[in-house]
Design a protein that fits this description.
By secondary structure, this protein is α/β, with parallel strands linked by helices. Helices cover about 40% and strands about 15% of the residues. Helix 2 packs across helix 10 and helix 6 crosses helix 10 (about 240-259). Bound molecules: NADPH dihydro-nicotinamide-adenine-dinucleotide phosphate. NADPH dihydro-nicotinamide-adenine-dinucleotide phosphate (NDP) binds near residues 142, 145, 187 and 240.
């Protein structure tokens, strides 16, 4: 980034938000704050709920061709009448700082990538910075979404973990999670990973962000129970969430550098 600055280059991130989902608004605001903090120019495009898929795609195409924009982020979820996959496929592979485009997803599979998806990359960074070696460890990822669970499993595999992926059809989930040296929960069910599902000395990483009716934010892991057994554990809030944003910043700087 300093190198880019020295050459007088400004880094630009376009953030598109459609509709008025309150959680999305919080995420977008946090991303904009991070941009301000590190000196990336963020340009927000707040579109009404009634925006059509065609209108959104033509904005993305315009930003693809805009030289002042290095990264494009379309905040998910999109309103139901817009096909997320179609919109993601429209983003230029070189500006896809979320790494959701199928080309970038494929590159992650083969381990030859420019961008990593922000949340799984943030988890890997936490593991690395905590001095935890993944090599040969039993890693269990609960959740198989395209944006978290699947790429998370792939990144752990690249680091030589022995990886098991669980989902809603997994039989006897606790039997699998109890075997994990490294357990990543990315489910979206408040506090479903309880202390009895965790092995003594395990590393427990909670990706979940669930808003309870009383507005409290909790993860997928019952923290008070699991921290008693875990060697290391991430809290919610203040664990994976900030790392996701940090990785978005990293990808945006990388996009500018590659350009
Ligand atoms: P999805 O809803 O796309 O995926 C959830 C996954 O959990 C699915 O694979 C589903 O299985 C699985 N699942 C659901 N119920 C169970 C169950 N009872 N037992 C086992 N597996 C189950 O969610 P995301 O991956 O997008 O997000 C997961 C969580 O992470 C959410 O709380 C989200 O808010 C949070 N998140 C946090 C981020 C951060 O920055 N910290 C970023 C992105 C997400 P199946 O495939 O069979 O339906």
């Amino acid at each position: 980034m300093d190198e880019l600055r020295k050459n007088g280059k400004e880094i630009g991130l376009a953030v598109i938000i459609v509709g008025d989902n309150p959680a999305s608004r919080i995420y977008v605001n946090n991303k904009k704050k991070a941009c301000e903090y590190i000196g990336i120019r963020s340009e927000e495009f707040a579109l009404p709920e009634s925006t059509t898929e065609e209108e959104l795609k033509s904005l993305v195409e315009k930003l693809n061709n805009d030289d002042t924009i290095d990264g494009i982020l379309v905040q998910l979820p999109l309103p139901k009448h817009i096909n997320e996959e179609t919109v993601i496929n429209t983003i230029s592979v070189k500006k896809d700082v979320d790494a959701f485009h199928p080309v970038n997803v494929g590159k992650i599979m083969i381990g030859d990538y420019d961008f990593l998806p922000c949340t799984p990359a943030g988890v890997m960074e936490l593991i690395k910075e905590s001095g935890i070696d993944v090599d040969g460890k039993n890693c269990v990822v609960v959740g198989r979404s395209n944006i978290v669970g699947k790429p998370q499993a792939m990144l752990l595999l690249h680091k030589n973990g022995t990886v098991t992926i669980c989902h809603s059809k997994t039989k006897d989930l606790a039997e699998v999670t109890k075997n994990a040296d490294i357990l990543v929960a990315a489910v979206g069910v408040p506090e479903m990973i309880t202390g009895d599902m965790v092995k003594e000395g395990a590393v427990v990483i909670d990706v979940g962000m669930n808003r309870l009716p009383d507005k409290k934010l909790v993860g997928d892991v019952k923290f008070e129970e699991c921290e008693k057994k875990a060697a290391a554990i991430t809290p919610v809030p203040g664990g994976v969430g900030p790392m996701t944003i940090a990785m978005l910043m990293k990808n945006t700087v990388k996009a500018a550098t590659l350009k």
